[in-house]
Amino acid sequence: MTTDPKAVVQKMIDAWDARDWKRVSNLFTDDGVLHSMMLEPIVGKANIGKRIDLLGAGIESITLHIHNMSVTGNTVFIERTDEFVFNGHHGKVPVVGVLEVEGEKIKAWREYYDRAELVAAMGLKQDFHNVEPAH
Question: What are the strands of the beta sheet with 42-43, ordered from one edge?
Answer without folding.
Answer: 42-43, 28-36, 105-112, 89-102, 75-86, 59-72
